[in-house]
Amino acid sequence: MNPSSTQEIIAFSLFAALAVASALATVTLRNPIRNAVGLFVHVLSLAGLYITLAAHFLVAVQLIVYVGAVVVLFVFVIMLLGPGSETAPDATGRVPRVLGAAGIASVGIVLASTVRTLAPPRPDRVPEFGTLRHVGEYLFGPAMVPFEVASVLLTAGIVGAFAVAKAHHHKVKMNTETNLAPLKSDAVDESQGDHG
Amino acid sequence: MNLVLLLSPILIPTVGALVLMMLDAFQKEDGGLAMPTALLHFTAAAMALALWQRGVPSDTSALHGFLAIDKTSLFLDATIALGGGIASLLAGGYLAEHKLDRGEYYPLIAFSTAGAMLLVSASDMLMLFLGLETMSLGVYAMTGFRRGSPRSAEASLKYFLLGSFAAALMLFGSALLYAVTGHTDYAGIAEVLHAAPANAAADAAAAIQVVTRSRISILAMLLIVIAMAFKVGAVPFHMWTPDAYEGAPTSTMAYMSSVVKAAAFGAFARVMLAVYGDAASAGSAAGWPAMLAWVAVATMTVGNLVALTQTSVKRMLAYSSIAHAGYVLLGVIAAPREGTGTTAYASVLFYLLAYTVSNMGAVGALILAGRRGAESVSYDDLAGYARRHPAAGFAMTLFLLSLTGVPPTVGFFAKFYVIRATLDAGYTALALIAVVNSAVSAYYYLGVLVKMYMRDPAPGAALASPMRSGYVTVAILTAAVFVVWMGVMPERWLDLAREAVGAATAAAPSAATAGGNAAP
Amino acid sequence: MTLAGCLTLAAALFSLGVYGLLTRRQAVAVLVSVELMANAANLCFVAFSRFRGDVTGQALAVFALALTVAEVAVGLALVILLYRAHGDTRVDLASEMKQ
After folding, report:
1. What is the span of the domain harbouring residue C32?
2. Which of the two ends of chain B, N or C, has the fewest CB atoms closer than 10 A to its terminal CB?
């Protein structure tokens, strides 16, 4: 096993601390915008970690997709929902939930301590490891089938998001009737007892 | 060309979904896509059968081990496609009646079906994951289709969040498996996990490695089991089920409770047998079958007991669907057993097909009974229904009898085979609990029949009267054909399921030896 | 920088995500928590990819990213749907809705 260089260790520790801190902020802060900013810092620090782990292509993807798209989408939705969305009080029965989380965390610690013994030798850094060419050769070679399936997945996601969020019907003829009909059937739903 | 042929059952709904989107875009009015969607699904089912008849091409190297196209997956593909086809027909009737008919619904069904087929064909954690998500994303959107209703919106969001949580658990589980084995394909993982350490005793470091590996693989297994339990709605991970089923459009509920469940169980059985089918993980008292036995008992019991207390037929069907997941689990538990395991696995496939057609039919009959504005059908609404509308009443009766497990409907044989497999595997107590549960379930299923045939409606009460829809009628007839056909010649169908399972063990020798369920 | 370090970090981030999922009721915050969990799994893949010198792990992480994006798109659409129908975005995952 070749020892990591000092710079690598420093960079790793720095980004790791940042990742944990931002994750903590993300899950505990009440204001949704702060959650989103926490996620933003978190994915940036993960990108930093990926650099130390020689995953250069992934760093690019992480920055473009996560920072560029996902976080922006989150912020966009939070802004759309407005201030009304931030006042929701959190769970009342906190103790069991915290206990559950502590249990899961202890599983994580056991896991980490077990893994210590596993450590396979770290191979020397090959210059092209993790580059676009290297990952691309795998994606378009053996992994062709899952790559194509991922495109199906993304299409399904787009159609799904569109079907759910579309505000108005684009087919004019339906419009006049639909405004009344769902209300009526909902009224029945409610009278069945939606007083929760 | 070989690749296209191999993947044709999956490609048909995928390409079909794109065509449906184009059709929808160029259509002037909504509606009318149900029939093309149903035909698409039935074509996919026929293609799976044709591939079965012709013999699965042996050269699957083009798939690079990501997908296993064998008779098991073809059987499940056909089940899924049949269920998807019936669900699209139901949607054609239901959505139009309730003024929800928007064209996006049909491509979403087709995408979900493609995802479900990928899920049952997956032989790699990556494909398992991609298939699961493709299927789920479509279903999430279909669940939120009743847009104006707050309940529906909340239920679909809950379903989505818990589903993504399950997906994240699964992702972390596969990350751990990749960590300890360096593989993501089932066969590779199993090979490394169960490789007997050559000189473990001599080499202390190697021994530690083996212990570590098994500990982490058990943790990964737990994560995968929990994720799958969420997907199939097994207790204690069932809390999203009744709300999501009730809030969803009824045609989506039919799809979720049959097709999604069949696909999740198919994939679950495959991954457990292929990766954890060895004697150490599956045989001992602390292995996963013993753990799942508790889950199965809780699932059956909770599902049935809560179903007893329901007043809405739709919610009753939701809880009964939880109970049925418990029965299927029995077969999965018995499947790794040496010798009798193959038949148990076959009984799982049989049950999934039987439940798909019975449940589709029952939900179809429920859709038929719920006109616009009177969608939430309660037991009381059905008073005298069968006397006023004999045909619609008879349809409901047939499918509820099948769900109860009354011979000669298919539901009886499905339960019989699963319970017999449980007995053969030596889980006597489990089989007894299943029989008792089945008796309990008769109470609430037959309660509907009593209302329909023997009670008069209270004066001035709302009366359920069937809507008229050719789509729903065709869907119910299709389901009825299968319920009766499979009920009349169950052995023939069980043999098919057996052949499906036998072929799987022959086609994937490494998985079979690891699975310990090679055909006797 | 060791493998155990990476995995401890991933486990910690994953647990933080689960904690958020269990304690938060605000739909967007729950969704963010799920994101944290998926990212922790990704970190695992990438770390092992590096330590095994095998590019498969990185490719898996790329797939997982694509998948998360699709998930977030649908999830946020559902949040908007809930907001339109309900006027707020609270969900309680642990309990059933009142009948």
Report:
1. 3-86
2. N
